[in-house]
Amino acid sequence: MRVAALHDVHGNLPALQAVLADIAHADVDAIVSGGDVLWGPLQAECLGLLVEADALFVRGNCEREVLAPSSETDRWCAAQLTARDRELVAHWPLTVELDVGGLGRVVFCHATPRDDDEILTRATPDDDMLSALAAVAADVVVCGHVHVQDDRRLDGGPRVVNAGSVGMPCQGAAGAYWVLLGEDVELRRTDYDVAHALEVLDEAGFPSFRETFQDALEGRVSALSATEHFEQKRRGA
Ligand SMILES: [Mn+2]
Asked: Where residue 10 sits, what CATH number does that domain have?
């Protein structure tokens, strides 16, 4: 079995379209949507495409936040969804489990299997990773949330793969980031026309769109700066 995991699309429809076109040539048996499809410019359209592609969904913190909005931006996002969209999203689970090729039992989640907003980064010490994942019986855990790809083997714990972000990456280079699982783990990057995407997405009316998205889409947010930001947040600094 081969599985494509697509995390943190954040309403970036052109990025998602490019990844789905790539996946069409990748002999994939299942697509997992790893959370945070919402909270972005063209989220309802992204949701529609993933439903059409028969994706298996897990819930991200942004799905939870859009369904219970507490900011102007959350409320804008909520207003883009139909009652049927909201009903669908409200039922997404925290995890999906699949047996994948040579990898064994794989648990897909947004942030960690126990919490859609818990932070784990490349810089998180092994002991902290192990305690966050202690209750998880899996060979591999696939997560997202911090928008930086990673593939790490924990001594005495699962292999932890971060799929990165399709729609709002922090990799220091433009593109849509995702992961392909089969006999092994392939961290993938799909190119798309970012200048055109920025124009299309800007039209959607997402509040402060350019300020929020442009640097990430143009590849100007480095993995190091994003990791430092999230790691400080994790440590409560
Ligand atoms: Mn998230």
From this structure: 3.60.21.10
